[in-house]
């Protein structure tokens, strides 16, 4: 398998990771959060997962770009970096997208700075690229490969419009409403507030 990676001169930023095992098959692009330890010489846990799904869905090569090109094993640290994105990152994202047969966005649910995930999604769709994902979390974000079961059987279309609709959807409020059971209370003092023996509580879901 051919393994390659593109770093900046300081080796603090990784702009591209690539793997090729069958050049005759389609190419897959992952757009993820930020690079960890994978390189032109070794894999990390995330790149292994990316390889697994790429092979499972019939691709012969993959490339990985990220919202933030800064290398870090702890995404919580992104907000403390002066420039987590990297000067050439958008250029590498668009170039990789132009080479890909299919694009999977898989940046997960956390650690976004200044709506970077939405900006990159719009950047890609503005060039006519269709976005897919391995799955969509309840928050509306595309799920990260490390959070996915190997049992998934297909890719899911990803739309920033769907995400924004979920983001602004009314929040569900759970309220406990006491309902008197079929039998009548014999007397008010027979009600046990701890066991609620004379009441059956149920959940009503109300939307704002």
Characterize the structure shown.
By secondary structure, this protein is an alpha/beta fold. The protein is 20% helix and 25% strand. It has one domain: Rossmann fold (3-Layer(aba) Sandwich), CATH 3.40.50. It has helices at residues 45-56, 89-99, 116-126, 160-167; strands spanning 2-7, 14-20, 27-32, 61-66, 102-105, 131-133, 156-157, 172-180, 199-207. The strands form two sheets. The protein has a seven-stranded mixed beta sheet with strand order 1-2-4-3-5-6-7, sandwiched between helices. Strands 8-9 form a two-stranded antiparallel ribbon. It is globular and about 40 Å long. Mean pLDDT is 84; it is low at 171-208.
Summarize this entry quickly.
Helices cover 20% and strands 25% of the residues. The radius of gyration is 24 Å and the shape is globular. With 208 residues, the protein is of the alpha/beta class.
Note the total helix count.
4
CATH class bucket? Alpha Beta
Largest sheet: 7 strands, mixed
Q: How would you name the oligomeric state of the polypeptide chains in this document?
A: single chain
**CATH fold name:** Rossmann fold
- Overall 3D shape: globular
Q: What spatial order of strands do you see in the largest sheet?
A: 1-2-4-3-5-6-7
Separation of termini? Answer: 54 Å
Contiguous uncertain segments of 5+ residues: 171-208
**How many whole angstroms does the radius of gyration measure?**
24 Å
The SSE order reads EEEHEHEHEEHEE
pLDDT averaged residue by residue: 84
């Amino acid at each position: 398998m051919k393994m390659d990676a593109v770093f900046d001169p300081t080796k603090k930023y990784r702009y591209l990771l690539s793997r090729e095992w069958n050049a005759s098959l389609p190419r897959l692009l992952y757009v993820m959060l930020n690079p960890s330890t994978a390189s032109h010489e070794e894999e990390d846990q995330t790149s292994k997962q990316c390889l697994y799904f790429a092979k499972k869905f019939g691709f012969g090569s993959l490339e990985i770009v990220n919202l933030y090109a800064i290398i870090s094993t702890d995404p919580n640290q992104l907000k403390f970096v002066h420039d987590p994105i990297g000067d050439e990152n958008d250029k590498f994202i668009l170039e990789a997208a132009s080479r890909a047969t299919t694009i999977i966005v898989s940046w997960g649910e956390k650690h976004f700075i200044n709506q970077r995930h939405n900006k990159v999604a719009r950047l890609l769709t503005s060039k006519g690229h269709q976005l897919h994902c391995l799955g969509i979390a309840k928050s509306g974000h595309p799920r990260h490969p490390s959070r996915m079961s190997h049992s998934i059987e297909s890719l899911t279309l990803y739309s920033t419009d769907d995400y924004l609709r979920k983001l602004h959807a009314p929040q569900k409020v759970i309220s406990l409403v006491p309902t008197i059971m079929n039998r009548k209370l014999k007397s008010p003092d027979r009600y046990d507030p701890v066991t609620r023996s004379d009441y059956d509580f149920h959940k009503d879901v109300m939307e704002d």
